[in-house]
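Example record for the data management plan.
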Amino acid sequence: MDKLFTVAGVSTLNGKVKLRFANGLDKRIAVLVRNGHSDVRLTELPEGMTKQNAALFLKTNDQFADVAMLVEAFLAKGK
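Corresponding structural encoding:
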């Protein structure tokens, strides 16, 4: 069974934007910021989701429209 996540989004580290998945909004933001990430944008998911389904959810969310190509690349890899 695939692991389920309740939070998904993106962050930037050293100029590279990456998708992020977690099970706790506040703690995950704190860890990312503490480790030097910028432009941390995470959102709570409507239910526990796999990484694939969470990426599909982000694809439909206007807040993440600017990273649609990143989401597409992630989905194409099938991670």
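Summary line stored alongside the record: The two ends are 14 Å apart (CA to CA).
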